[in-house]
Specification:
Blueprint: H1 4-17, E1 28-30, E2 33-35, H2 51-60, H3 78-86, H4 93-101, E3 107-110, E4 124-127, E5 148-156, E6 161-168, H5 182-198, H6 219-234, E7 245-246, E8 248-251, H7 257-260, H8 271-276, E9 285-288, H9 290-293, H10 302-313
Parallel strand pairs: 6-7, 6-8, 8-9
Antiparallel strand pairs: 1-2, 3-5, 4-5, 5-6
Length: 315
């Protein structure tokens, strides 16, 4: 079976040939080379109605873009995919509640995220804590520390406040590299091992074998995000976003079997089974396809859903 990433490259090239990206010819530069699926003008990588606002949001909230100081023209960027899906609805409380209803009936309201100095709304991007709780240094949105791809702050039906960190995947797949080795690995273990030991959600035994699951991707990212959410709650008396509980959402296209169905060396199991073996409360983690996440949006967002269907969802 063809690798999902290659399928998506072919789809992007086909869209480029049809003039779909505002007649962008592709063949842009990424690294030191040109590729047909890289757009020459990164503005054409965005759902057009959000372009100006999204770029200003990143600029004035001092958020880093993936791989550089400017938005990427890489058409397979998961950061851009996340923004294209969620930025268009971030000001619309009812739409954000509709997104929550796609995976839970427990949330009755959403709260504006005031840690965004520029244009706060009901979804933020590259969210960080006010204070470093993970031994990573000063939180910097989008780089060098644990920051959350997208973030929702919600009210549960029991009146408690929940944070919903969203990890967005698109064509990512990972090798079997143990990131606990070497000098960098020692630094990572110093940062996170004690926090894992004290965690209520992460099962510490996963560090006690020769295969340190938490230090293999994509579990390394999920581990840090889980610790981040727990620490936000532990420090809810000092954090601007004061929360009582969390739900960790992982958005992954079902066709990305290179990520989902790979047998990982650290576990000899696939990605969902491996990660669920690492966490205590299964209800706090959900995997959801992007098209299911947005399925409850009304006719107001017909054009958005058509854009996403053509670009991301259909074969």
């Amino acid at each position: 079976m063809e690798v999902y990433r290659n399928q998506e490259k072919r789809k992007v090239v086909s869209l480029i040939d049809k003039g779909w990206f505002n007649n962008d010819p592709g063949d842009g530069v990424f690294g030191d080379s040109n590729y047909k699926f890289i757009l020459k003008n990164s503005d054409n990588n965005f759902y057009p109605p959000i372009l100006r606002d999204a770029k200003e949001y990143f600029k004035y909230n001092n958020i880093s873009w993936w791989k550089g100081s400017e938005a990427t023209g890489h058409a397979l960027s998961s950061q851009i995919a996340c923004i294209n899906h969620l930025y268009p609805i971030r000001y619309d409380k009812e739409a954000v509640l509709a997104v929550l209803s796609s995976f839970s009936n427990n949330f009755t309201d959403v709260i504006q995220i005031i840690t965004d100095r520029y244009r706060p709304a009901y979804i933020s991007f590259e969210q960080v804590s006010d204070t470093d709780h993970l031994n990573e240094g000063k939180p910097t949105r989008g780089s060098i520390c644990t920051s959350i791809d997208a973030f929702i702050y919600a009210i549960h039906k029991d009146g408690s406040k929940w944070i919903i960190p969203i990890e967005w995947k698109y064509t990512e797949s990972y090798g079997d590299i143990d990131k606990s080795h070497g000098p960098s690995g020692e630094s990572r273990r110093t940062r996170y091992d004690e926090l894992i030991y004290k965690s209520s959600q992460l099962i510490y035994d996963k560090l006690l074998s020769n295969k340190n699951t938490y230090y293999y991707e994509p579990f390394y990212q999920l581990m840090r995000q889980t610790l981040w959410a727990e620490q936000m709650i532990s420090h809810n008396n000092t954090e601007t976003i004061s929360a009582d509980n969390f739900l960790h959402l992982n958005v992954i296209p079902p066709k990305n079997i290179d990520l989902l169905e790979k047998r990982y060396a650290c576990s000899k199991n696939d990605m969902p089974v491996t990660w669920r073996s690492c966490i205590a409360d299964q209800s706090k983690y959900k995997i959801i396809p992007p098209e299911i996440l947005l399925r409850n949006l009304g006719s107001k967002y017909y054009k958005l859903k058509q854009y996403l269907l053509e670009r991301y969802w259909k074969d």
